[in-house]
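Q: Got a minute? One more chain.
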Amino acid sequence: ANCVDCGVHVHVGRSCSDPALLVGPHYWNVDIFGPEDTDDPWNNGAHYDTDGMGMSTSGFVIDNGFGLDDNDMRTIVMHASDGTRVACGELRRAYPEEDTQSMEASLGLYPDYDGDLRVSGDVEVNFYSDNSFEFVLDLSGLEPNCFECGVHIHTGTVCSDAALVGGHYWDVSELGEDDPWVPAQGAYYTSDYSGDASRSFFLYSGYDFDENVGHAVVIHNSEGGRIACGVLRASY
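A: Always. Here it is, folded:
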């Protein structure tokens, strides 16, 4: 309550699951502003005020030197009056409301996987009119504390035979050889100490809804091993 000029900033990290390790410092373009703390644009007007009930409606304009794509999926942190970090959230790109097409897959063990993990859960993929999509996952039985571990749509259309699952699925003719299914593009999950993970990310693979239906989704562990698989089916 009555917090005056308390800090709120976008940070370099992409996950709030472990604030001490994953959130990182303030996020700004050091090539534009410089690397020193005195160059930090988040020290200039990036604050909120609360009333006696701890309520706040605040706003400000700031340039951190990065655009929409760079700020997307970064963490945002709220500070108390003494600078303590008291809240954290993960930024997600807001899309205009429009009709979407959805597909989903239930995850089971990867064929021939003989490890101790027993992954279960679901993924949902929601396609927009520009063929970009939101990939939503809710999984359990994962390796605990798996940081930015892989989750991808693959070229194969079955999960019954490991030889047929194939590699990552994207349109090389449109996107070139640069695989979009990488953590830098958001294609990952981070599990908690219990091996649970829930998150979403946005991606564009160059293929549309119909071209993705029936393809395999693969979950990886921290070493890149394939531990779970499910085939995408259209949601009606």
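A: The first strand starts at residue 6 and ends at 11.
Q: Perfect, thanks.
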